[in-house]
């Protein structure tokens, strides 16, 4: 049987991994796929630089559109990143009857509905395992392996840069800016790390997992996104004293108020497996009604880990290349006509427990005022610490953990506490998840 012929759009880190792994494991891949997978050409903005990066004599071109629509190409692999020109090239490839494999989470989180509809109409596949958690096969696990389950929630450490920073802050007691500079020096963080440290990258990924878990359209614009730039080393230390660790989590959960879709720093009990994922590693926990909690752990980025997922998609598409389109696995796990219109829940209706650090004057009655306000809003306290605040022994830091409550109620209580004359600085508040 003739080999499946593919085109690579982009010649960066992931593309070089795809070339290396396909060449190294070509016989194993052929045995799994039932036929060979051949790279016909690579499109690159700078062919000379691309040739050095790929370490291969593959044909190179600057004509991205021409390669994406060539008659002799079966699968277009989009590894460029960003929205444009990736969106236009993917849609052109689909219109030309090509299957698409992509690692571009931003593209699918923002334009996925349009792309999946175009692919459905044209009868081609769009595969995107590498778009979420790098080498971890989480898309296939949720979409296929857990197909018997009603998924209740998904929570994950899905950005390695932020996890590395938080791990270093906890281990070494350093502040955010110092650890970010070290992460950039080591290559864990980009020169412009905004998408990572502000939570946008994780939000792209949890948006895709939300759609697959609950069978809803892609809705990145409804996600709540909060990064780690305002985290203080003191809060990491206090959380540790209370038996928790702080991780940047992507969370999506089915509730009576709708589907929660959020990214933010989160306190997790130190005994949970997810709390012990360190460095640049990723991990995702999925709770299904039949299987219970399952954990998926591994490298969330890197040349060959991400290439592993890209090539797994290539094998899947190769196997199903000649299958009736109606018999293929749906892009978002549920049949296109069966996607639900369940709303994304507003943050005011999200239920969570909370960590609060309040910088106050150390005088009689202050703690009573704070706890009274919380009680008036129906918020009970789970744990409390009081620590000296700086060199001034007339000031103190009050650290509270609350039981679960509705966020809107917590907002109201915090506003009243912040307005007290005894409160000397903006209140620090973080969400806490038990992940039972």
Task: Please characterize this protein's 3D structure.
- The strands form 2 sheets. Strands 7, 8, 9, 10, 11, 12, 13, 14, 15, 16 and 17 form an 11-stranded mixed beta sheet that branches. The protein has a 6-stranded parallel beta sheet with strand order 3-2-1-4-5-6, with helices on both faces.
- It contains 15 helices and 17 strands.
- With 436 residues, the chain is an alpha/beta fold.
- The longest helix is centred in the N-terminal third of the chain and has 18 residues, at 105-122.
- It has 3 domains: 4-135 and 303-337, Rossmann fold; 138-299, Dihydrodipicolinate Reductase, domain 2 (2-Layer Sandwich); 348-432, ACT domain (Alpha-Beta Plaits, 2-Layer Sandwich), CATH 3.30.70.
Topology:
Elements: E1 4-9, H1 13-24, H2 26-33, E2 37-43, H3 47-54, E3 60-61, H4 64-68, E4 75-78, H5 86-95, E5 99-102, H6 105-122, E6 126-127, H7 138-145, E7 151-157, H8 160-172, H9 176-186, H10 194-197, H11 200-214, E8 224-225, H12 233-241, E9 244-255, E10 258-269, E11 281-288, E12 292-299, H13 303-320, E13 351-361, H14 366-376, E14 381-388, E15 395-402, E16 405-406, H15 407-418, E17 428-432
Parallel strand pairs: 1-2, 1-4, 2-3, 4-5, 5-6, 8-10, 10-17
Antiparallel strand pairs: 7-9, 7-11, 9-10, 11-12, 13-15, 13-16, 13-17, 14-15
Helix pairs in contact: 1-13, 5-6, 6-11, 8-9, 14-15
